[in-house]
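Researcher: Here's a chain I'd like modeled. Treat it as a single chain, no partners, no ligands.
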Amino acid sequence: MHPTHDLEDLDSGRRSPASRRAQDAPLLPWPTITLVAAVIGLLLMVAIPMRPLSPKRAMELQATLRTELATRELTLAVQAYHHDHGQWPGAKPAALQTLGRAEYNSIWFTRQLSLSSNAMGEVCPQLLPEYPHGPYLSERLPVNPRTGFRTLRILERGERFESIRDGIYGWLYNPESGEVRAHQLPFSGKHASSPLR
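Model: Modeled as a single isolated chain. C-alpha cells:
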C-alpha cells in the first residue's frame, strides 16, 4: 500500500484495521501494569528500612537458634544410639540393673552418648573392637542456652514434658519414646550470652 493511500483513508473517515486496533487497545496491557506495580512494591520494601531488633530481642532470637541447634545435635545422637543398640540411651546395662526392668538415669544417658559402647550398652572410654558403637556426642551433653545447664531430667512413666517447671535442668528426656526437649523457661537474657560451658 502506498503511504498516500493511508492518508486518504484517514481523511475520508475510514480507518485501516491496524489503526483501529491501536486506537481501541489500552495504553499498557494488564500483565505489564501488574509487573510494574510489583517492581515498585519491591523497591519500596527495600527503600524503607527495617526497624532494628532491640538488644533483648536479638539475644532472645540468638538463644532460640542456639537452643534449636543443640536440641537437634542431641536428638540425632539419641536416634543414632537407638539405631545401633535397638533401645534408647540411658538404660543401665542389664548386668547392673537391680529392679529386673530397665532402669534409666542421666549418668548412663551421658556415658552412652559420649563414650564408646557395645551392643549391651556397656561403655568404655577408649575405642576398642569390643566397643564398636559411638561416641555419638563430641563430649558431654550440650548446654541449653535458655537455662545455662547441661543437666538431664528423665521423665517418669506417664509424666509430661510440660509438667516440669523448675529451672535446674537443661534437657528433658522421655526414655519410652526417645524424645529429647530443651527445658524451656521464660527468657530472661541471663544465659543467652554466657559462653557454653
